[in-house]
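Our collaborator T.R. sent over the components below with a one-line note: 'Predict the complex.' Nothing else. No constraints on interfaces, no templates requested, no preferences about which chain binds where. So this is a plain run: every listed entity goes in together, and whatever single assembly comes back becomes the starting point for the next discussion.
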Amino acid sequence: MSEPFEPKIVAFVCTYCTYAGADLAGTSRMKYASNVRIVRLPCTGRISPMFILKALQKGADGVLVSGCHPGDCHFAQGNYHARRRWTVFRALLAFTGIPEQRIRFSWISAAEGAKFAELINTLTEDIRKLGPFEQYHELQKVIETQSTY
Amino acid sequence: MGIQEQYISEAAGLLASGAVKLVIGYCEGSTPDRRRPVFVRTPAEAERLMLDGACVANLSTYLITEGLLSDGKSVAVFLKPDGIRSINILAAEAQINPEQVVIFGFDIENGQARTLAGRKASDFTSVVEAAKAAGLSADLQKESERLVQMSAEERFEYWKEQFSKCIKCYACRQVCPMCYCRRCIVDVNQPQWVNTSSHTLGNFEWNIVRAFHLAGRCVACGGCDRSCPVNIPLRLINHRMAKEVLDAFDYYAGESTDQKPVLATFRQDDPETFIL
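Returned assembly:
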């Protein structure tokens, strides 16, 4: 019997809220799926859409972008700017056929350790159901196997 | 006197008086039904200018040529409403000083060029308003909806097929008045965000990134679509972005020279239905 599929998920989080929330989940000894790779950034406003594309390019099956709730941003406005950017970028990804279920966005504060653990667990299960993002990854495999490029 | 003769004599007059140093317009193209850009520097050369229904290119793209406007002198340019919107955006993004641009405005109706009154970007407010009221292209909307009806997999296959044709010639970037970055993100190699060779994944990334950078800035002049040697429907993807900013933020690109870029501003009550 084959092993169950373990999705690779990259989470881009801001250091002041979601990362602290993840920390809280850890210090509270909450268990969450180990499929997530957390990348800590100063603010959600720092999260470029290029990061999402790079994660997919390098083999991620799902991406989570998370930051402070509106009004809570350490830099006052970073998450508002990020929210507009995501609205547009999300529509673009959906239009080019990258499933919306694979690219998720959330607000998680430093006090929401439980929400973080729960979200990671649901996200992992959702992506496990979807299976690996073969459609995208096979494009990368073509590059690696064909010397003509 | 037709619009062509009128604009030729005005252009010659502006050049003779030294009010402008250059007129960017259209002249005879390689076939009878095409027009190519011409750069007129003397009153005598103004005779070469043409204006008719075949003048489709958005000439505002030449205004971002490095150093062109840095001497403070004015340049005259032939522009349709989409080109006038480009001028507004470039001015709003502090790329050009709109005072240095003299506009010969025209629109094409039933294959004929028609005069748009005004000389400065701010004179054309009503023209831009009319364009906004007319809405985004219905044809593109229809095609866009056809794609939205598909499943994500089918849409992916559709774009994969389209983008696999891309040869990364960057004609779309070169022709675009909005692509003025001195160092384009595809030319950045430390870190290298986008695969530079023209395999399908690299093409996918490049076209996604370009569409994203044009969100809320594209005026649908169709330059990229026309210049694409392999006929990728680039206008379609840009249309989708224009629709998104219109629906989500009530934003129409290029309304005025002081309109804030859509992604450089925000409202506290922006929609966020997708955020968990």
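Summary for T.R.: Chain B has nine helices and five strands.
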